[in-house]
Amino acid sequence: xxxxxxxxxxxxxxxxxxxxxxxxxxxxxxxxxxxxxxxxxxxxxxxxxxxxxxxxxxxxxxxxxxxxxxxxxxxxxxxxxxxxxxxxxxxxxxxxxxxxxxxxxxxxxxxxxxxxxxxxxxxxxxxxxxxxxxxxxxxxxxxxxxxxxxxxxxxxxxxxxxxxxxxxxxxxxxxxxxxxxxxxxxxxxxxxxxxxxxxxxxxxxxxxxxxxxxxxxxxxxxxxxxxxxxxxxxxxxxxxxxxxxxxxxxxxxxxxxxxxxxxxxxxxxxxxxxxxxxxxxxxxxxxxxxxxxxxxxxxxxxxxxxxxxxxxxxxxxxx
Length: 319
Fold this sequence. Notes:
The structure is a single chain. This protein has 319 residues and is mostly helical. The protein has one domain (7-307). It has 13 helices and no strands. The longest helix is centred in the last third of the chain and has 28 residues, at 216-243.
């Protein structure tokens, strides 16, 4: 095989495994760090590193006020609310369940595009929507999943987070954040991380916390999220977007929940029920139908979703 083929294989492996593993890494990171506070630290540090990389690459063009404003919108929607909400909910929701719930977002994107932009989905996408809804109903209908008030609230927060994420995806292509991908990503991270940290302080997450409570598990997991989850996986995904079709790059949508479930069961003692396996299979089948339904006349909802439907926490890394 050629060097380029090996690089493509490596990039797929990174996006499949690393992004699938971020759910467990998030759970471990909040072992001794408050959820929104951890997100603030993660994105502020990653954003600062990426901004420095953008300068080292030789682009000295300064972003405009408009670029910063648009990046702020995306940073808050994608990172402060989107990622922050999912991480917060993982205090009660298993990592594998969180990953499967996030996989539901292509349906939300389809509905939002149709509602606000009159982009009617193809018939095949409606079939996928129906299948996805059945899978989601089976998934969240398990008594053990909603055993208490905290679990129910956690599920509701994740659904709100992915709805906000989907809205951000619709707006993202329409906003000018500058031509430098590294810099626009860094700007989103800096603002999103800053807002998450301010929110963390306002709700008292750090009250009574001391550095003595910080565990090695949280330090290693947060470092992994910064280096591998943000910078390395971001670079791998951008390489795929330049060298393979969007629908192939978006296959991580189907693989990430599987990786998350396997890691959660193997390393975090999470129980994976037969109903969860069946529900997950049905849900991902529906997502496949949504993503693969195309029309030749003009870009369809599915084609737009193909380009947008990537794992939670990562769309903000694309621009």
